[in-house]
Amino acid sequence: MKKNILIPFLALGILLATVSFKKDFFEIAKQIEIFTTLFKELNMNYVDETTPSDLMNKAIKGMLEDLDPYTVYWNEQEVEDARINNSGMYTGIGATVRNKDNKMVIIEPFKGFPADIAGLKAGDEIITINDINIKEHEGDSSELLKGMADTKVNLTYLRQGKKEETSLIRGAIDVHAVTFYQLIGDDIGYIVLSKFNKKTTKETKAALTDLKSQGATKLILDLRGNPGGLLTEAVNIVNLFVPKGEPIVTTKSAIKKYNKTYKTQKPALDTEIPLVVLVNGRSASASEIVSGGLQDLDRAVVIGARSFGKGLVQRPKKLTYGTQLKVTISRYYTPSGRCIQALDYWNRDENGDPVRVDSKEYNSFQTKGGRTVYDGGGIMPDIELESGKFSPITTALLKDQAIFDYATTYYYSNELKDWKNFKFSENDFQDFLSFLKNNDFEYETESEKLFSVALRKAESEYLEKEVSSSYQQLMTAVDKAKEKALTEKKEEIKTLISDEILKRYFYREGMHKYHLNHSPEIIEAVSVLKNESRYQKILK
């Protein structure tokens, strides 16, 4: 027991050495000592058996939960997952899975990899892995799918309620940053960049070089849905189109050593090619560094919907026993000087939620050529399209997996042989609405949350009887408004359903090919690139 007690004090010594410049170091030492003694007494004296690791994990999460959601503790496995995510290589079955509430579901098998070869489909629920029951397994069950290359793994899974079995051989999985590229017409290159890992610049450069060899003299860079990744890779992507020595992003922190300006380091691949960047509400972090940098330097026309608005930078810090703290160390600023952070995690509303920066409080900045751009709420496109926006109802449908589950049902009820002739019809949309009702889909609006707070306040003041009738009327009105929202956002929802369906039949490749002729953002980008005077007018 003494050995275990010593560990926090050793950690304390290291901590004091690294934060000695802080005026509050005595308070930090005091609080760590209090926690250490509390932790020891709790484990030794609590009436029921406790698990030290579980108690510590909950304590750490409690300490971090009031900060921003990007400051997190990683155990050994999560550290390894982050390494894999950044490297773009791992050994496994080649599929993304959702592992929640002791339930593992295949989200997407990658074309040509073991899961796909074995016949696994999106929507399959894995119930055992090598005879280990997922519902009874403690820890991250998805780790059971990983292992040495060329090793066998046996799976039992449910498909549409029927139990199936399969075996597959684990292999090396190559996670591409560039998931698709193709020439549109005779002279417009199109590149889909899905993440910023260590392969991003290499793959993007290779795709661009290939497209130019095919005749591309204009380019569309699609960052829609790209959640970001490595900051240095974002700078390198901008460097493909911007000369050496150009400031792309500046980080500012309370700690001086983290204050840094990242400049382009190499000669550009092409500084003249007309460029359009596509973004939407799920384009975040490194995607916003690229789109914001190219916009501020008047190097690209940005099309789509306002991006997510993540203007914070994280860095992993090594802890003991292979664990890490991924901590927010700074805010980043685009070349014009704007920080596009949308949520203020240091100021919360009455529900404890971060406050969104009001558009009235946005500050204006100037691009290199004198155009006006704004901070505070993501990257605002030069050409904004309604089709690229994500409304609250759409976000709720995605979060609840309603669109994913409907696509699974659709796949086993419809035959589809050619993506070119696919169309999600009005009858299909009505079928989707019926699916929602039959599966009791519900989501809570911000208005409902506030009304609920007001009702609880009324109850505490013994006014429940007086306001309950009005409250019920309000809830009825909100329910009608939510039903109306489903219809009003029909095109937005149909696009997402179509994407999920197309992936089931034709993988991501088929989905992207379908987009070339049906995506409003791509169609608008092509239109802008084909009209040189319009392109130049936007940038000036």
Describe the structure.
- With 540 residues, the protein is of the alpha+beta class.
- The chain folds into five domains: 2-50, no CATH class; 89-174, Pdz3 Domain, CATH 2.30.42; 178-320 and 328-390, 2-enoyl-CoA Hydratase, Chain A, domain 1, CATH 3.90.226.10; 392-441 and 489-518, no CATH class; 446-487.
- The chain is 41% helix and 22% strand.
- It has 16 helices and 23 strands.
- The protein has helices at 2-18, 25-45, 52-64, 76-87, 114-117, 200-213, 231-239, 286-296, 392-399, 402-411, 426-438, 446-460, 464-488, 490-518, 520-530, 532-539; strands spanning 72-74, 89-92, 95-100, 103-109, 125-129, 132-133, 152-159, 162-169, 171-174, 178-184, 188-193, 218-222, 247-252, 260-263, 275-279, 301-304, 312-318, 324-333, 343-348, 354-356, 364-366, 372-374, 383-384.
- Strands 3, 4, 5, 6, 7 and 8 form a six-stranded antiparallel sheet that branches.
- Helix 7 runs parallel beside helix 8, helix 10 (402-411) packs across helix 14 (490-518) and helix 12 (446-460) packs antiparallel against helix 13.
- It is globular, with a radius of gyration of 26 Å.
- It starts with a helix and ends with a helix.
- The relative contact order is 0.08.
- Residues 1-10 and 12-17 have low confidence and may be disordered.
